[in-house]
Design goal:
The protein is α/β, with parallel strands linked by helices. Helices cover 49% and strands 13% of the residues.
Length: 291
């Protein structure tokens, strides 16, 4: 069974000045992340504004990223949609492009029962030969998986892992302990070091776009047992995350990327542009924390 380790940047979707996906900014963003040592990319997740992209744009983005990345890194694609049919369509498209794995949020808007969610993931796994990763994000999907539910899901051997975008460290520890062969990703950057302490060895995050190097460093320091130094880095990360959460994470990440020389445009409406005051706060915290 394939097991993923390391840092996976949940890419923002860069737009040009007409609001279309910008290939040239995507190239710069990918190169920056590779230079900082990431293992791979997570596409069309929350950070990638997936639910504000059309199906065609989601497919184009995967095509563009695969062309740019080549064999230099792993690529995981979120194919979450409202129905199984459309998720399978995106999954098949991603499979044709030879992505490393697909991932999916549980179908949302309508509330389904647990048998329906489990069937959704099994259908997805049956439809493609690439591995499947469950995207657990209760705050956005409003679907809360218990350990029993996750055990049912992970009993399918084609479901090789889970992206845990939750602050529940107890559930995270149980997952890592009970499923050592599966890839368990931490999806909250502000508890990255805590996740390492319960045995996690992979992460998917939005703030990696602007500071992947700090997470690579956290892995190295943790492996070397230098916990005080690791905590110092995590605290720097969290100074930035706390301002990002205040102004809106994806808008804020794009603003800091602009300061770093990569113009990704603004997040799509209904997100509103940042105010000058918010931009100034971001600039200050970025400088103070070495970005
Ligand atoms: C996604 O799909 O892009 C992700 O889930 C990436 C992980 C991010 N979670 C969310 C909900 O966006 O990086 C985190 C998050 O932005 C960060 O920890 C701040 O809370």
């Amino acid at each position: 069974m394939k097991k993923f380790n390391g840092i996976f940047t949940a890419l923002v979707t860069p737009y040009d000045n007409k609001g279309n996906i910008s290939y040239s900014s995507l190239e710069k963003l990918i190169q920056k992340n590779l230079d900082e040592g990431v293992e791979g990319f997570y596409l069309t997740g929350s950070t990638g504004e997936s639910y504000m992209l059309s199906m065609a744009e989601r497919e184009y983005l995967v095509e563009a990223v695969m062309e740019i990345v080549g064999k230099r890194a792993e690529v995981i694609v979120n194919v979450g949609m409202f129905s199984t049919k459309h998720s399978i369509e995106l999954a098949k498209h991603a499979e044709e492009l030879n992505v490393s794995a697909i991932s999916s949020v549980p179908p949302f808007y309508f509330s389904f029962n647990m048998d329906e969610y489990v069937q959704f993931y099994n259908d997805l796994a049956d439809a493609v030969s690439v591995p499947v990763i469950v995207y657990n994000i209760p705050a956005m999907s409003a679907v809360k998986f218990s350990m029993d539910d996750l055990t049912r899901l992970l009993s399918n051997e084609k479901i090789i892992g889970l992206k845990h975008t939750s602050y529940d460290l107890f559930q995270l520890q149980q997952l890592v302990e009970q499923f050592p062969e599966k890839s368990i990703f931490i999806g909250h950057d502000e508890i990255y070091l805590s996740a390492l302490s319960v045995g996690v060895s992979a992460g998917i995050g939005s703030t990696y776009n602007i500071m992947a190097g700090k997470f690579v460093q956290l892995n190295q320091l943790f492996a070397a047992g230098k916990l005080q130094e690791a905590l110092k880095i995590q605290n720097e990360v969290n100074n930035v995350v706390s301002v990002l959460c205040e102004v809106g994470v994806f808008k804020g990440v794009k603003e800091i990327l602009k300061l770093q020389g990569i113009d990704c445009g603004e997040c799509r409406k209904p997100f509103l542009p940042l105010t000058d005051e918010e931009k100034a706060k971001l600039k200050k915290v970025a400088i103070e924390n070495g970005l």
